[in-house]
């Protein structure tokens, strides 16, 4: 999903599964 890609870039490339919705 595009949302996952956006979150991964914000977290620095980490899986959105481990990173909460910041």
TrEMBL record:
> Basic residues composition bias: which ranges?
1-11
Native organism: Trifolium medium
Q: What is this protein called?
A: Uncharacterized protein
Residue ranges for the region (Disordered) are 1-22
